[in-house]
Amino acid sequence: MVSTHLPHLTRPQTWGLTCWSMGIIVAQRAGLLMVAVVMAALLDRTVTATRGCLRDWYLDGKDKQGAKHGSKRRTLEVASCFAPLLRWVIHLSPAGTHQIALAMDASTLGQRFTVLSIHVVIRGCAIPIAWKIVRATAQGAWRPHWETLFQDLTGSTPDGWTVIVLADRGLYAKWLYDAIQKNGWHPYLRINRQGKYRPVEATEFRGLSTVVVKGEAGWKGRVVCFATAQRQVTCTLLARWTPGYTDPWLVLTDLPPEEADVAWYGLRAWIECSYKDMKRGGWHWEQTKMTDPARAERLWLAMALATLLVVSVGVHAEATTPQPVLDDLPDTHIARRRKGDTPPRRQISCFHRGRLLVLVAFAHGRRLPPMALIPEPWPESLDTSHDTPAAAAPHQKAA
C-alpha cells in the first residue's frame, strides 16, 4: 500500500515508514522505544535490532549505520511525499467527489519546535499532507516556508476540483492569498475587522467593523478590501457575526459570491483536532526527545501516514453504519420527541474509531479494515444577504 502511493521511496524507506506508522497506531505513541518494542514483537525480532532500523530511518544519510564504511545511505526527503499524500487522500475519495477543504495553521511544541502545516479536513478530523518544522526560538519570517509548501503541492489535485484553503486571521497576508491562487485553489482567509473595504460599485471605503451586526443576517459580495494600495485585493467578502462570538467572521475568497458560503469557514476548526491527535489525544508527540527539526519532520511523516490510515478506516465505518430511520418508529417513540433540527453530535471521532478498528483487526489476524474518505456535505448558511450593507453613520465628535 505504501509503495503504491509513495513509489519514489526506496525499499528501506518504505519498510521503515510502514513499521513506524503501524507501530505508532498499535502503541498509540510516537516514541522510538515504544514503537520498537511493538514492532519487535510483531516481527519476531530483537528490540535492539528493531530500534536501530527505526532510528536509521529518520537520520540523515551521513548519520546512518554503515555510512562511515562506504555504504551509500539515502536521506529521506520528506517534501517529496507531500503531493503523493494529497493524491492518496483524493484516491480514497468516492467517485463523484469534486471538492476538498484544506486548512493551514501553526502549532508549537513547547520552546522546542514550531510546526507549519497544511491538512485535509474531513468529518471532524484533519490529515496532515504538508509541513515544515522550525526551531521555536528561530528568527525569521514564515513566508518562505509557506510558499515552499504550496509549491510542493502544485499539480496534486485533479482539474475541475474546487479546493478551498482555510486560515485564521493571524496568518492573513496578500502574498498568501496569491500563493494559494497560483495552485489553482481558492483562498478562504479570515481577516481582522480593523481595516477598510468598499463594494466594487462604490467609491468610498468603509470600516470592516460595519459590514455585519451581531445576531443579524450575514452578508457577501464583491469588494476591494483594504485602503492601502499595496495590500488591496479585489475579492469576495463573506461576513457573519453569530451571537456568542466576540468578533465576526470576515472571510476573503476569490470564489463568486453565489458559489461561496461563510459557513464553510467553520471547517477550519478541525485542524485543531488534528494537533490534539498528534499530541495528548493520540500519538503523544509531546513526549518526543527529538531536538533536530529535520528528524522531527520525518517522524511527522510516519504520524501523518498513521493518521491517514486510522481516519480513513474510521470515516468508512461511520459513513457506512446504518442510521435509524424515524419514519419506521411509532409517533409516540421517545426518539421522535428528542429529535432536534441539528444533527446529533459525533460520539467518537473518526480518528479514534478507526484506530480501535485497526487494533481489533490486528487482534484477529485480519487485513486492514476498508478505507475511504467520504466527506459530509459542507455546512450552509441560511441567513446571508447579497444586499450591499448601508454605510455606517459618521461618529459625532464630543462637544
From TrEMBL:
Pfam families reported for this sequence: DDE_Tnp_1
Region (Disordered) location: 322-345, 379-399
Recorded GO MF terms: DNA binding; transposase activity
GO biological process: DNA transposition
Basic and acidic residues compositional bias, start-end: 330-344
Ranges annotated as spanning the membrane: 20-43, 299-317
Protein name stated in the entry: Transposase IS4-like domain-containing protein
